[in-house]
Amino acid sequence: MRKKLICMALTTAALSAAILAGCGKQGEKTENTAPSGTVQSDNLPVNENGEPDPLGIYQEPVKLKIAQVVNPSDTFPEGQSATKNAFFDYFKENLNIDVEVLWQSGSGDDYNEKLNLAISSGELPDIISVNAAQLEMLIKAEMIEDLTPYYEKYAGETMKNAINSTGGKSLEAVTYDDKIMALPNVKSFKDGYDLLWIRQDWLDKLNLEAPKNIEELRSVAKAFIENNMGGANTVGLLGPSSSNLLYANFQQSSGTMCGLDGIFQGCGALPGYWVKDNEGEVVYGSLTPETKEALSVLAEMYREGTLDQELGMRKDADEAWKSGQAGMFFGPWWVGYNLADALAVDPGAEWLAYPYPLTDEGRWAPHMPNPSDSFYVVRKGYEHPEIIFMINNQLLVPEVGNKLDGMGILSGYIPGRLVINTAKPAESDAQILFKYLETGTVPEYDVSEHTKMEIDINTVKDFKLEPYDDLGIETWNVSKDGNFGRIYSTLVGVGAIDKGYEIGCDEGYSLLYGQTESMQKKWSNLKKIEDETFLKIILGTIPVDEFDTFAEEWHAQGGTEITGEVAEAANK
Fold first, then answer.
1. Omega of the bond prior to 385 within 30 degrees of 0, cis?
2. ∠ CA 66-68-72 to the nearest 5 degrees?
3. Cβ neighbours of residue 362 closer than 8 Å, sequence gap 6 or more
């Protein structure tokens, strides 16, 4: 049985009424029986023998109410929108599911606030995207379904194989008192890396090389600004939107969009992660000398103007690079999915990715993600808890995933979608595609690890022109439709990850990605202190040496106790 992990990301005020109404004592366990909140439906996907069919279709229409995260800069094909689009049509035609958007929000804090309100009012969507903290709290409030019987009956073989590829970590993350309470994502480790995305055409115009270390990055940013490459308000190194993370952490360990992880990694720092120091002792990565050094570098960059001057205030970082204002940012491999928007503004915008900056030792040192940190849960009492498995089983069928990828809409708008991949395949998608382009022969590959490879091979030459080893934008047939975004992201983004391993990669794992008991009352305050202090240091509001005061305060307000618990858990 999984150790109960306590998380407090949702506000106590938002959940207190629900918890008191929904359960007795918080420490009490519920009996491991069939879900009591569900009204069993006769309208279930079954095969001709009447057995559960993970790839079946509902005989009668099923209504599904969802919440939706909307980015103002996202675009849709003509005649479509966030609430009426080809994804919704697909699920109606192929699963007999009628999707309704119950409410919309922005990402990050905006979504969390809307979810808090929905919990307080009891008006939850039928399926809900949550993080680990939100999952824990909804379990305690008894507001979500036990999915154990539905996992056994409706999780397809491909889904189960991917979940099992993490060595039990993914199921452990959603198991509470021997019950599976959510469907976990399974990230390919490539989703955790932060790459340096840079305007290669700007580099070429200024006769500059891609910056391999932090000092070179600062010089390139300065050159971009001094030469007004993006206009009078050119941004050298772009920072995150105000609602997003400055850097990944053990609770949210995926690659961050426009975060500053690359600078920390170039200094050999892993803020937000639990690591061991030179003496082998467990320490919080935000307290190390390397993190202080990185903050000093960022403060210097902000002061000299090479770092985003709207850091902490920018509402939409994506708009800054898509519009041609910014020259560099750190982001995940899949940035190419959004590239067509930037090319619509400037057809010559050439964004390439690099595994930079390197450490002083010339190594690439990315943080590594928790394989499962995002989950879908089902509202207590919803008639069709199996629906979350049915949706994602469909998405894992290569032909279906490829069809949806080709609809010209960002995949985040697929209702109920979770990224479920093999954690670490033996060979990357980019390596397979490059082999095909070089030889003209389809290489052998494991279909279960590379579910989209067939369509990638069938379409790669529609978008990538010769010479195949030149990734310049002039060698691409750019399109907002079809498979362009994935092919570009794979060859450029995943290709950069492969290059990082060729250079030499020091993978940075957190000793713990879960929670400890003392975090129930203390972590949210410690995280708030950290976020505020680090931003103030970078912006120059307080001096870098305030880092030492922060470290003392962090320990005094519960950090020492939590570190002991982490050490105990890590050493088991």
1. no
2. 160
3. 503, 504
Length of the chain: 572
Q: Do domains 62-186+375-413 and 191-368+506-570 have the same CATH topology?
A: yes
Per residue in 105-148, pLDDT (tens digit) is 999 889 999 999 999 998 899 999 998 889 988 999 999 999 99
Inter-residue contact 370 to 27 (CB < 8 Å): no
Report the pLDDT value the prediction gives residue 38, as an integer from 0 to 100: 56
Q: pLDDT tens for residues 43-96?
A: 999 998 999 999 999 999 999 999 999 999 899 999 999 999 999 999 999 999
Question: Do 358 and 238 touch, CB atoms closer than 8 A?
Answer: no
Give 503-538 pLDDT, tens digit per residue: 999 999 999 988 888 998 999 999 999 999 999 999
Q: Could you tell me which CATH number the domain at 62-186+375-413 has?
A: 3.40.190.10
CATH code for residues 191-368+506-570: 3.40.190.10
pLDDT at 209 > cutoff 70: yes
**Tell me, what amino acid is at 108?**
G
Q: Tell me how far apart the alpha carbons of residues 369 and 363 are, in angstroms, rounded to a whole number.
A: 19
- Preceding amide of 355 cis, omega within 30: no
Q: What is the pLDDT of residue 40?
A: 58
CB 127 within 8 A of CB 66: yes
Geometric angle at alpha carbon 116, from 110 and 119, rounded to 5°: 145
pLDDT, mean of residues 409-415:
96
Q: How far is CA 509 from CA 276, 400, 412, 501, in A?
A: 10, 34, 27, 16
CA distance 174 to 388: 14
pLDDT for residue 154: 98
Distance CA 496, CA 338 (A): 17
Report the alpha-carbon angle 38-2-114, nearest 5.
Answer: 55
CA–CA distances in Å: residue 320 to residues 222, 236, 238, 323, 504: 17, 11, 8, 5, 32
* Phi and psi torsions of 235, nearest 5°: -105, 125
Give the whole-angstrom CA distance, residue 250 versus residue 197.
24
Say if residues 235 and 327 touch (Cβ distance below 8 Å).
Answer: yes
Return the C-alpha torsion angle 354, 360, 364, 366, nearest 10.
-110
Domain extents in the chain: 62-186+375-413, 191-368+506-570, 429-501
Contacts of 464 (CB under 8 A, 6+ apart): 437, 475, 476, 477, 487, 491
Angle (nearest 5°) at CA 421 between 180 and 273: 75
